[in-house]
Amino acid sequence: MSVLVTNIGELVTNDPALGEGPLGILTDAALVAQEGHIVWVGPATRAPAADYGLDVAGAAVIPGFVDSHTHLVFAGDRVDEFEARMGGTPYTGGGIATTVAATRAADDATLRANLARLVIEARRQGTTTIEIKSGYGLTVADEARSLRLAREATPETTFLGAHVVPPEYAGRTEEYVALVTGPMLAEAAPHARWVDVFCERGAFDVDAARTVLRAGMAAGLIPRVHANQLGPGPGVALAVEVGAASADHCTHLSAQDIDALAGSETVATLLPGAEFSTRSPYPDARRLLDAGVTVALASDANPGSSYTTSMPFCLALAVREMRMTPAEALWAATAGGAAALRRDDVGRLSPGARADLAVLDAPSYRHLAYRPGVPLVRTVLIGGEPL
Fold first, then answer.
1. Beta-sheet pairing, 377-382 with 357-360
2. What is the C-alpha separation between 35 and 29, in angstroms, rounded?
3. How much is the pTM?
4. Does residue 92 sit in the same domain as residue 57?
5. Which domain covers residue 293, as residue numbers?
6. What pairs with residue 65 in β-bridges?
7. Helix axes 108-124 and 140-151, enclosed angle (nearest 10)
8. Which string of b and e fits 242-276 if b means at least 16 CB within 10 Å?
9. Are 323 and 381 in the same domain?
10. In the chain, pLDDT over 90 holds for what percent of residues?
11. Which of 48, 179, 223, 264 is the most exposed place for a label (fewest CB within 10 A)?
């Protein structure tokens, strides 16, 4: 079956060969999807026939958001912690243990239902590709369970057994790293595509992080790194060293960090929801972009430091707080996320790509930042099928 989406006032393709500027914008456009993929893009007046039609009445159409960093397998919430931060308590990452305890205590049905709720919430806001990490189990059984559940929702699953050292291993980091790189990795790897580590003070130092990433890579997983969130550190340099797909957070960067990213294929994934929710300084996206670094935006959806699944909200924050233009922010939230997941079939609307798109209740993509907090996503198609 084929579907024609027509009467598109402004179509963002993210393919400069198809339209104007880096976003490849076409006006008065149409596209045709067949068997889940885009097969034709062009002027509405030249659109071929299709089995079904969707007239969007002059609305803007954008690629579906690619959220390349989330932590959606968990139980409970941490609203008390959030309230304390708003009152001046600094964020340290220590609250992760609260979610670990709740997640371990929850049964599969509870975790699955919460995961499904959050994925649907994200999709309704235009997210069509999503990455999901483990990291709130921190036992062999609970990490494998988290990844099995995540795999029900997405193929982009990440083993994050090295999130923090759990309470029962306090003072015994080396023993916990041995567990993560041994029995835990063996059980987790069949359910994961990626391996991640929180390389940060209070979590894992550079040597431990490197050990975790190298073990994951030997098991066939691709590395990514939580890097430089709470302060300057070696996380970004480590990400570049091991050829990680992305270095995520990148809040505190030196000139050397930016140079290293600019000379690599590692994407800098920025997570403004975390800065919003922790009252922390925002990353300087302008410095990264001006240096030629590939930048992605993601939600960091998790119950402690960024309890939002809204990519439009994160895009608006990036424009307002991180000195990105609306075009740069949209590219980072779509094609940038695809680059962070090493995907060339999402994040764009051009022939051969998946037919994953969002129809906006607005004439231009610029309204996503111009009208923050307004639910502008009218219709979502995933693989050419309406949500």
1. antiparallel
2. 21
3. 0.97
4. no
5. 65-340
6. 127
7. 40
8. bebbbbbbbbbbeeebbebbbebebbbbbbbbbbb
9. no
10. 96
11. 48
